[in-house]
Amino acid sequence: MAVRSGKKRAAVLAPLIAAAVIFACFGLLLVHVMNRKAGSYPRLYADEVAAASERYGLDADLVFAVIRTESSFKPDAVSSAGAKGLMQIMAPTAEWVCWRYKEEYDPSRIFEPEYNIELGCRLLSYLIDHYDGNTEYAVAAYNAGNGRVDGWLQDPERFRDGKLMIPIDETRNYVKKVLDSYEKYKQQTNN
Questions:
Q1: How many CB atoms lie under 10 A from the CB of residue 68?
Q2: Crossing angle of helices 60-71/46-55, nearest 10°?
Q3: In the prediction, which pLDDT does 33 show?
């Protein structure tokens, strides 16, 4: 009789154990997927980004999106055009940004994350103010220069019905990438 009740118990417990194992595996898989998704939208240099974003009135999620798109969080990144660091700052742009703040530009520090983020946030803040808070225009100008974007906004072929038609593929794709990343970072922040 004891053997029989043991078999009954095993017959009842086996499906429960199998269900528990499947549930645990599914949970581990879900955690892995969520971690991978978060990993593709990292928040490296969070202290530097938070400080500079606060100082210049920027949304840190936008700064993370720009860094992700510009350099993939590689502080030693150099573009074929000569832009450098996390936020891919060109030397003439860095000089102009520093001039606006009555400071001397220090090219020896351009790869320092804190310095590069500071310069990039100053520029981004200026552009957002210049375009009355329009993030799309500011991001386009971060890539193509505000002179070009100002010209496009004055051109009826490029700006109609309140919509900017960006004529440069690289800039159009850049804006899309930054704004898509910005949305992903905002979703992370809100979860």
A1: 22
A2: 120
A3: 45
**CA quadruple 42, 43, 49, 53: dihedral sign:** positive
Phi/psi region, residue 155 (left: phi>0; alpha: psi -120 to 50; beta: rest), is: beta
What's 163's DSSP letter?
Answer: E
Q: Which of 61, 27, 18 is nearest to 41 (CA)?
A: 61
Chain segment 67-95, per-residue pLDDT in tens? 999 999 999 999 999 999 999 999 999 99
CA distance 117 to 54: 12
Higher-confidence residue: 39 or 144? 144
Distance of alpha carbon 19 from alpha carbon 17, whole angstroms = 5
Q: Residue 70 catalytic? A: yes
Percent helix, strand and coil across the chain, each rounded to 5? 70, 5, 25
AA identity, residue 58: L
Is 52 in contact with 63 (CB distance < 8 Å)?
A: yes
Catalytic residue among 70, 114, 170, 183: 70
